Amino acid sequence: MNAVSCTGVRHSFGRTVAVDDLDLEVAPGEVFGLLGPNGAGKTTTIRMITTLLPAPPGAIRVFGTDVAREKLAVRRLVGYVPQQLSADATLTGRENVALFARLFDVPRAARAEQVGSVLDAVGLLEVADRQAATYSGGMIRRLELAQALVSTPRLLVLDEPTIGLDPIARAGVWERIGQVRADTGMTVLVTTHHMAEAEQNCDRIALMHRGRITAIGSPAELRAEVGEHASLEDVFRARTGGDLTEDTSKGIRDVRATRRTARRLG
Amino acid sequence: MSAPPAAPPAAWGDRVLPRLFVSRVATMCLVELQKLRHDRSELVTRAIQPALWLLVFGETFTRLRVIPTGSLPYLDYLAPGILAQSALFVSIFYGIQIIWERDAGVLSKLLVTPTPRAALVAGKAFAAGVRAVLQALVVLVLSALLGVGLTANPLRLLTVLLVVVVGSAFFCCLSITIAGLVLTRERLMGIGQAITMPLFFASNALYPVQLMPGWLQVINHVNPLSYEVDALRGLLIGTPATLPLDLAVLVGAAALGVGVAAALLPRLAR
C-alpha cells in the first residue's frame, strides 16, 4: 500500500488551475520531494493531501484512507509543518508541543514523556521551558517539527521547511528530519524549491511546473536523462523550458508572510 | 539524540465524538490559561475601562438620579451591565486572533489535527469565555469595593460565571463568523468597532428597556447582550429576571454561532 496515492487530482482557484490532472505515488518509508518554482502547485497539492483543501472522493489516499471521506482518520496519520514559522510565541516550547499531544489524544500518562522525547529528538529539551518568542528561526522550525512528530505520524508533510532560514539552520532542520526518518522509517513528503536540498535529502523527486508533474524519479535517474554532468536545474529546464527561480504564482504573498512571521518571532 | 516511537499506539485515536469535543474545548481553555499566566498585563489594562464606567459614569449618574431604577441605586443597576460589557469587549475581537493564526500558519496546523471544525470553534469560544470570566472577576471585585450590593450566594455566583462563559462564547463565534466573511484583520477591526457600541447601547446594560424608543426596544429583544445582562442583573442584584429564557437564548445563540463559524472556518484556511 502506498503512503500517498493521487489519481487525476485537479484544483482551481477561480479561473486559475493550481493543480492539473496530477498522478502521484509515494512509497512507505521514502523521503519524497515535490520540487518546483513558486506557483507550481506544490503547496496546493499537499494542502489537499492534508485535508486543508477539498479533494474529490477517491482521488487522494493516505495509507489507503480516502482524504475526502475520512478526514479525521487521515489527520491522525499525518504530521504537518506549514511554510510559515508558526509556533505560538506566548507559550513555552514544551507547552507548544503539549498542545498538539492533547489534540492528537496522546494519553495523559504517556504525554509528558512523549513531549520530552520529541523535544529531545529535535534538540530543544534544554530550552523547552523558555517562551517560543525567545527562539531563533531555526529553533522555531525544529519546534514545529516536534509538534508534528509528537503524534508519531506515519506521514510527515513539510511545506518548504527551510524557507527563510540561514544555511546553518537549514542544515540543522534537514539533519533532524533525516535522523527521525532513519530511526522510525516514517514517510516524509516535502516541498522545496532548493535543488541542492532536494538532491541531498530526497530518495525520489517529482518536478512540478504549472500544476503538473513534468518528471519523477530519483535525483540520479532524473539527471541521467539529461546528461552526465546535468543538475536538477538542467533537468527542470530541459523538461519545461523554464527554471526553478521563476515565479508562476503572480505574487510572493506566502514568502512575504513567512518573512514577516520570522521577524515577529525573532 | 533520542527518537520518538516508530508508530502511534492504536488506542490514541479511539475517542468517541462527544468526548473528543469536550477534550478539544478543555485543551483550548487550558492553552488560554497558559497564555494568561505568561502575560497578565491584558487583565490589568482591560480593567481600566470598566473601572472608569463604574467610577465616573456610575457614581455620577447615581447622584444625578436621572435614570429611574426604582429603589435600586444606579451603580447597583449598572454593575451587571458593565460586567457584560467587559466580557463582550474581550470576546468580540477574537476573530482577529483567528486571522492572526491563519497568517502565522497556526490555524493550518490546528486544522490538520483530528479535531472537527465545530470542536475547534467551540474550543476557541470557550477559551474566550475563560478569559472573560477572569475579566468578570475583576469587575466583580471592583463593584464590591464600590459598595454594590452583590449576592454572596455561591450557586448564584457560579451561575453568573456560566452566563459570562456562554455569552462570551456567542460573541466570540460572531467575531469568528465575521472573520470568515471579511478575511482580513483591518476589515474585522472596523466591523468589530462598528458593532460593539451599538450592541452595548441597544441593550439594557445602561438603562431600563422601558425608557428606550420603540424601535430600540425591538432591537433590544433580538440582542443577546440584553439577555446576558438580564440574567446577570437577576443573579447578582436580585432584580426580576427571566433566567430560563435568558439561558435558553444564550445557549441557543452560542450553539448557532458555533455552527455558523465552523461552516465559515474553511474559508480562512484556503
State the name of the first-level CATH class of chain A.
Alpha Beta
Secondary-structure content class of chain A: alpha/beta
Relative helix content of chain B: over 70%
What's the number of helices of chain A? 10
| Total domains of chain B | 1
Q: Name the pair of protein chains with the most residues at their interface, and give those residue counts.
A: A-B, 58 and 37 residues
**How many individual helices of chain B?**
11
Pfam family, one (chain B): ABC2_membrane
Subcellular location (chain B): Cell membrane; Membrane
Protein name (chain B): Transport permease protein
Membrane topology (chain B): Multi-pass membrane protein
Outline the structure in words.
- The complex is a heterodimer of chains A (266) and B (270).
- Chain A has 266 residues and is α/β, with parallel strands linked by helices.
- In chain A, 40% of the residues lie in helices and 22% in strands.
- Chain A has a six-stranded mixed sheet, sandwiched between helices. A four-stranded antiparallel sheet of chain A has the order 2-1-4-5, covered by helices on one side.
- The N and C termini of chain A lie far apart (42 Å).
- Chain B has 270 residues and is an all-alpha fold.
- Chain B has one domain (17-269).
- Helix content of chain B is 76%, strand content 0%.
- At the A-B interface, helix 2, strand 6, helix 3, helix 4 and helix 5 of A face helix 1 and helix 5 of B.
- Chain B: It is found in: Cell membrane; Membrane.
- Chain B: Keywords: Antibiotic resistance, Cell membrane, Membrane, Transmembrane, Transmembrane helix, Transport.
- Chain B: InterPro entries: ABC2_TM, ABC2_TM_bact-type, ABC_2_transport, T7SS_ABC-Transporter.
